[in-house]
Amino acid sequence: MKRIFYSVLAVMMLCCAACTRSEEEGVLPEGGKSGQKVFVRIENVQVPKVRMIEDEKNDKTESAVEFQSGYLFFLTPKGQVRTHYSIVSNEEDVDDEGHKLSLKQIQEGHTFTGISGDVSKVYIVGNVTSDELNDQDIHSGDLPFISDIHLKKISLGNQHADNMNHVALAGIEGLTDGGAGMKEATVTLSPLCARLEIGKITTDQTILDYKLDGVYVAGFYEKMPLNQQCVESDWVSPDYATSDVEAELKTFYTRYGWMADCIEFSKVQEQTEDGHNVYSFYPEATQSKKWAYPFFAIEEPAEGVEPYKGHLGVHLLLKLSGMTVKLYDETTNSWEEKKLEGVRYINLNRFVRSHSAHADAVNFYNGHIYKIDEIKFGTTNLSDKIMPTDVSVKVTVSVAPWKIDNIYPAL
């Protein structure tokens, strides 16, 4: 499995070590002077060059996230911020006195001077907006520790643009001895959101005809703190208990239009392995595009560490109309054809790694792309309501400059 690797090489020349302030008192240590030099280089990053029907992402370079701007923090063992630098994409914004460096400088390598001797970690955050984290936040002194920075929230609405090519990124790594009086660190920047891709929507033989009117992400977190531990107050969804579903969907997706698609999709008649003809829908006629949506998940834990348990997952909703179905008549012991008036919904809210009835629900991790090859449903999955407990979707997993998890629903 691959990650997006942004290598930060920090070469620390050990001379008269000093601190800008101590951990507890916030003052310069007695007799201290700033004398360390730190060489930092970011490697293997793409530089900058709404609807969510997009090209499929893969594990190739073209799917890498672009690093446009961000912040580099030097941290003590207790997570205190000793100093920070802005990384900007515009060369005209470079200001050495103001601690503003260009992405080009960091890519080619930049030597930092006057770094405190107790610095032991490098933390980088990229592609955050000024509303989420900015120079004033940092210079105000209100964010003295990484734990304070981690409470700043990023918005899902800032993650979907340009096929998710510049989502928020973050990574932290400790400095290690590099020999010859040097220290170094390699930092892996991972996307701070996940991505859901859906290839096609199809049916079993009980559905004779239908129209796909909409694909919706019908429950998600609109914000996430940088510590990747979402809270319930940031969860949004349509009102599942509404008596007027049409009006509720219209109102909700007026605000969150980038989490839904309600256009004319490509309808294709296909033959199943057992010889039955069914209708399938694709985002576009080429069948190469995907329905693609960002969502906030949780941080992938280190091996042996339990993942964060407070996450509500993600909910999907399909809207269908013009349905003709086959229903079994137990009186005549035969199948009969019937037209269904109005609209029906498919509610998808649970994902697992296999089709086993006993499979545990999948933990969704940021930095992963979850691919649903197809959503296949039948008459038993239809509902005239939107609710989070109708049916389950089963998911299997595979990986990119993101990590890719192949998923498909088990209805």
Description:
With 411 residues, the chain is mainly beta. The chain folds into two domains: 7-191, no CATH class; 194-407. The protein contains five helices and 28 strands. The protein has helices at 103-108, 135-139, 146-149, 161-164, 245-255, and strands spanning 7-8, 11-13, 36-40, 42-43, 53-55, 70-75, 81-88, 100-102, 110-115, 121-126, 153-155, 169-174, 176-179, 182-184, 190-191, 194-203, 207-221, 223-225, 235-236, 260-261, 266-271, 277-282, 289-295, 315-329, 334-340, 344-348, 368-377, 403-407. It has a six-stranded mixed sheet with strand order 8-7-6-10-12-15. Strands 17, 19, 20, 24, 25 and 26 form a six-stranded antiparallel sheet that branches. A hairpin with a 5-residue loop joins strand 21 and strand 22. The longest helix is centred in the middle third of the chain and has 11 residues, at 245-255. Mean pLDDT is 81; it is low at 1-35, 47-52 and 392-400.
Q: What's the topology here?
A:
Blueprint: E1 7-8, E2 11-13, E3 36-40, E4 42-43, E5 53-55, E6 70-75, E7 81-88, E8 100-102, H1 103-108, E9 110-115, E10 121-126, H2 135-139, H3 146-149, E11 153-155, H4 161-164, E12 169-174, E13 176-179, E14 182-184, E15 190-191, E16 194-203, E17 207-221, E18 223-225, E19 235-236, H5 245-255, E20 260-261, E21 266-271, E22 277-282, E23 289-295, E24 315-329, E25 334-340, E26 344-348, E27 368-377, E28 403-407
Parallel strand pairs: 7-8, 16-27, 27-28
Antiparallel strand pairs: 1-4, 2-3, 3-9, 5-23, 6-7, 6-10, 10-12, 11-18, 12-15, 13-14, 16-23, 17-19, 17-20, 17-24, 21-22, 24-25, 24-26
